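retry 2 of 3: previous attempt timed out while embedding flavin mononucleotide. Reduced batch size to 1 and resubmitted. Inputs unchanged:
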Amino acid sequence: MPKDIKILVGTMTGTAELCAEEMCDSLEEAGYTAEMTLMDGLDADVFEADNAYIICTSTYGHGDVPDNAKQLYESLQTKKPALAGIPYGVFALGDITHGETYCWGGINFDKVLTELKATRLGEISQHDATSGELPEDQAGEWAVEWAKLLDG
Ligand SMILES: Cc1cc2nc3c(=O)[nH]c(=O)nc-3n(C[C@H](O)[C@H](O)[C@H](O)COP(=O)(O)O)c2cc1C
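retry 2 succeeded.
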């Protein structure tokens, strides 16, 4: 049985939410069970052993997570839950013109989840807002490839 996939969304202006909606549709079409939740109000307790997680987040400020992701991000750092064996993936939105902080929102989540011993499947998918590629197209295609790693 494939795990249920929970997509946690950090966004300021809705692009990551659009990407998560597309991921849900693509994953459901491919036979997976997926649901998305905005990170607003979430804390580290959202991670449960039986699920798989996609962190879908943009980047703001100087490489910060979006405002609606801050509580979850900080909660992971302070509560330090044991996440061993929980699979996750990261879809990071950013803008290459921000230089060294490119996609740091997603990269920062990856760092803390790795520290908590969760298992990242595949590489972080980075979307550059200046690339001309629609973020939701990249997200939908990436999510299905990522989910195949759950079966393997
Ligand atoms: C004020 C501001 C600051 C930003 N800072 C960064 C940054 O440090 N690094 C980065 O890669 N992208 C940065 N971005 C780009 C956004 O992450 C990118 O446009 C993303 O697609 C927005 O997604 P959202 O609508 O889901 O929030 C910034 C954008 C704005 C408007």
